[in-house]
Design goal:
CATH class of the largest domain: Alpha Beta
Order of helices and strands: EHEHEHEHEHHHEHEHEHEHEHEEH
Low-confidence stretches: none
Shape: globular
Structural class: alpha/beta
Strand order of the largest sheet: 8-7-6-9-10-11-12
CATH architecture of the largest domain: 3-Layer(aba) Sandwich
CATH topology of the largest domain: Rossmann fold
Mean pLDDT: 94
Largest sheet: 7 strands, parallel
Number of strands: 12
Oligomer: single chain
Number of domains: 2
Distance between the termini: 10 Å
C-alpha cells in the first residue's frame, strides 16, 4: 500500500475500496468544515464528496497532489467547479446512477401523503380508530402530477406515475416536446403546471436559474390543496418559511421533503411540527441498489483519472485539453 490518501467527506460502501484501494487508503473525514478539509488535503490524491459538503476554492487549492474530485450524486453545485478547472482537476459525478431509486422514493413519498399514511399511523397508535371515517384519503388515480425538471429522474417518475392512471404534465425549458412525449408527459409553462397540478414534484438541478424558484409568488399560484414533494435540491425552495406558510394557509395540503435549503436543517423550525409534513434525511436515493450504483460509478470515474484515462461522466471536460497529471499506480 502506498502513502496516498483518498479522502471522503462521508462514509463509503466497500465497493469503493475494492475499486480504489490500489491507489491508496480511503480515509473518512471526521470533520468537514473548510479548515478541517484544508488540513486533510496534504497527501490527498482524490477527494470523494458525499452530499452537499461545500468544497470551495480554498480546499481545492490546498490539494497540491489532488488529481480528481468525485461527487456521489448528480448535483455538483457545492463544488467550486471554476477553481477545479483552473487547477486542472476533473470533477466526476454520477448522473442517472440513482435515478430509479430516487424515482421510487419520490413515488413512495407521494403515495404516503396522498393516502395520509403518517397521520393514520399515528392515530391508530393512539387509539383513534374513528380516523378511518373522518380522514379524507386521496387517490393518485385521476390526479394531475406536475414534474418540474424532466431529466433522468423526472422521466422515471413520469413512467411510474402513469401506471396509476394519473395525468402527467411537466416543466423543463431544456427538454423538447419529443423527449417529454416519450416519457409520457406534456410540457407546459411553469405557471400552468402550478395552477393545475394536484401533486407537484421537483427534480430540477440547482443552478442560478432554478435557485429559489419555489417562492411565495409560485406558491400563490398553486392549486389549493396541492401536495409538494422535493427530492431534488433544497435550494430550489426559497426557504422553509414560504413552504410552511403555504401549508398553514391550506394552499398546500401536504409537503414531503428529502432535501432542505440547509442540511442538516434547523429542527426548531415550525414546519417540523406540522402534521401534514413528511421528512427524510436526504436519503431517498440511498437504496441498496441505488447506493451501490452510485459508488461504483463515482469510484470508476476516479480510477479512470488516476490511471490517465478520460472518465465517462465529467463536469469540466475542458481540463483534458491540457495533459493529465501522471497516473497513480
Amino acid at each position: 500500500m502506498n502513502n496516498h490518501r483518498i479522502l471522503s467527506t462521508g462514509s463509503v460502501l466497500p465497493v469503493a475500496a475494492d475499486i480504489l484501494g490500489r491507489f491508496g487508503r480511503i480515509e473518512i473525514a471526521r470533520k468537514t468544515d473548510e479548515d478541517s478539509l484544508v488540513e486533510l488535503m496534504k497527501g490527498t490524491i482524490a477527494l470523494l464528496v458525499r452530499g452537499v459538503t461545500p468544497i470551495p476554492a480554498r480546499v481545492i487549492e490546498a490539494g497540491a497532489e489532488l488529481r480528481v474530485i468525485g461527487r456521489t450524486g448528480a448535483g455538483y453545485d457545492n463544488i467550486d467547479i471554476a477553481a477545479a478547472t483552473e487547477h486542472g482537476i476533473p470533477v466526476v459525478f454520477t448522473p442517472g446512477a440513482g435515478a430509479k431509486a430516487v424515482a421510487e422514493g419520490t413515488l413512495a413519498m407521494i403515495l404516503a401523503l396522498v393516502k395520509r399514511l403518517p397521520e393514520l399511523d399515528h392515530k391508530t397508535r393512539i387509539g383513534e380508530w374513528q380516523a378511518r371515517d373522518n380522514t379524507v384519503i386521496g387517490d393518485l388515480q385521476g390526479s394531475i402530477v406536475g414534474i418540474i425538471g424532466l431529466g433522468r429522474i423526472g422521466r422515471e417518475v413520469s413512467h411510474l406515475t402513469r401506471a396509476f392512471d394519473a395525468r402527467v404534465i411537466s416543466y423543463d425549458p431544456a427538454v423538447s416536446k419529443e423527449v417529454a412525449a416519450a416519457a409520457g408527459t406534456e410540457l407546459v409553462d411553469l405557471d400552468v403546471l402550478l395552477s393545475q397540478s394536484d401533486i407537484i414534484t421537483l427534480h430540477a438541478p440547482l443552478s442560478g436559474q432554478t435557485r429559489g424558484m419555489i417562492n411565495r409568488r409560485c406558491l400563490s399560484l398553486v392549486k389549493k390543496g396541492a401536495i409538494l414533494v422535493n427530492a431534488a435540491r433544497g435550494g430550489l425552495m426559497e426557504s422553509l418559511d414560504v413552504v410552511y406558510e403555504a401549508l398553514e394557509s391550506g394552499r398546500l395540503s401536504a409537503v414531503g421533503l428529502d432535501v432542505f435549503p440547509v442540511e442538516p436543517p434547523d429542527l426548531a423550525h415550525p414546519i417540523f411540527r406540522h402534521p401534514r409534513a413528511l421528512f427524510t434525511p436526504h436519503a431517498i436515493g440511498l437504496s441498496v441498489k441505488g447506493a451501490q450504483a452510485i459508488f461504483v460509478m463515482a469510484s470508476k470515474g476516479i480510477a479512470d483519472v488516476l490511471e490517465g484515462r478520460i472518465p465517462q461522466n465529467v463536469v469540466n471536460p475542458e481540463v483534458f485539453r491540457k495533459s493529465l497529471k501522471g497516473s497513480v499506480t
